[in-house]
Amino acid sequence: MSPKLVLVEPAGPLNVGSVARLCRTYGLEELRLVAPRCDHLGEEARRMAVKALPLLQEAVVFPTLAEALADCGRVVATSGRPEGEPLPLQSPDEALAWLLAGDQPHPAALVFGREDRGLSNDELLQAGRLLQVPVPTSHGSLNLSHAVAVVLHDLHRLQRLGSAIEPAAAPQPLAEPPLAEPPCPRGELEAMLADARELLLEVGFLLPHTAHARMAKLRALLQRGQVSSPDVALLRGMVCQLRWASRRPFPSPQDH
Hints:
Elements: E1 4-8, H1 13-25, E2 31-34, H2 43-49, H3 53-57, E3 60-62, H4 65-68, E4 75-78, E5 89-90, H5 92-100, E6 109-112, H6 121-124, E7 129-131, H7 144-164, H8 186-202, H9 211-225, H10 229-247
Parallel strand pairs: 1-2, 1-6, 2-3, 4-6, 4-7, 5-7
Helix pairs in contact: 1-2, 1-7, 5-7, 8-10
């Protein structure tokens, strides 16, 4: 199953059309757009899509990144910032090898940010790995469609490498210890975190003015651990039980 390609708030119709063409060229079957800031079906986008026009016309539009990734397990997001990321940055080979690893019951996704400012920290924390395309100069940057082209080229190279050799003979730098369970769909994790936030505010562990920052740290911790569906079910069960216990009336002295 090829990964879904997700563009967050793309502003340039030429970029969207070019990305659709790249998806067709490299065998990706689905383009997802998060709150596009341009007419992705307009004349400019159609002109750049060329033979990928059907894929462009079938692009699915979502209001938020969380909704676009709700059914996805392994998610790689791209970033051009040299530092200050909420998760460690990896090379294309490292991040994409992880994206392709193992049997995947849930779709995988590649996420690209806005042309002008990329992805926010909150959006980056919805990915399991962060990828940075290396450039030879510290002040250089890539156009959105160019960045997509580089990443899809590397993805295709790793796919060909994986299909051309026996798994036991795969290069060690691309090997990763298999997880006991695959990562859970993003929607399951986000629903559990929403429940946890509500409970932690209710019991006073979180304060309204610091809740966002502390929940971001919790999200980063869980992303590093790559929690599975059984993990999330366990955590959600704990949250539900703690909520029930916190709302029980304290026994009065007459009850003893």
